[in-house]
Amino acid sequence: MLEGVVPFPPEFAKRYRERGYWADKSLAQEFKAVFERYADRIALIDRDQSITYAELDRLSSNLALHLLGAGLVPLDRVVVQLPNVAEFVILYFALQKIGCIPISALVTHRYAEISQFVQLSGAAACVIPTALGIATLRPSSIAFERRAQR
User: Across the chain, how many H-helices and E-strands are there?
Assistant: First the structure.
């Protein structure tokens, strides 16, 4: 259990498992089945593009590999400050696939709020929109300090 997480009372957890509400699968595992089952269906529409579940799976898997290559590791927290665009969904699934914990921030948040999210969560990176509409991954200073200590 992650530090700071309050677990469900054991009797509730038992009941949820018995009734089939909980399957003890990660979100990545649950969505893998959805990606396969609905591969040819449209998963999302953003502006003038449509993305199928198969494409979403492929794009998020590719991004997941790049994020691992950039140094993210399972259980890293990542502050995500993106508007309601396809890139947000792709990033969310990529983070789930590698076991990172996304921390959503509103697009209207500024440095003061984002820096608090990073400080309180120990985030390894922030993903923010740029003026060109392309998301950028910026490692936080906490991530650099932690990596230097390894």
Answer: 6, 6
Hey, which CATH number is domain 25-149, 3.100.10.20, 3.40.50.980, 3.50.50.60, 2.40.30.10? 3.40.50.980
47 by DSSP, 3-state: which? coil
| Euclidean distance between CA atoms 26 and 35, whole angstroms | 14
Cite the DSSP H helix spans in the chain.
10-18, 27-37, 53-69, 86-98, 111-121, 141-149
DSSP code, position 41: S
Place of tokens 């498992």: 17
pLDDT tens per residue across span 25-68: 888 899 999 999 999 999 999 989 999 999 999 999 999 999 99
pLDDT tens profile 116-144: 999 999 999 999 887 555 555 555 544 44
Give the residue, 58 or 107, on which the prediction is more confident: 58
Distance between first and last Cα of the chain: 23
Return d(Cα 118, Cα 114) in angstroms, integer.
Answer: 6
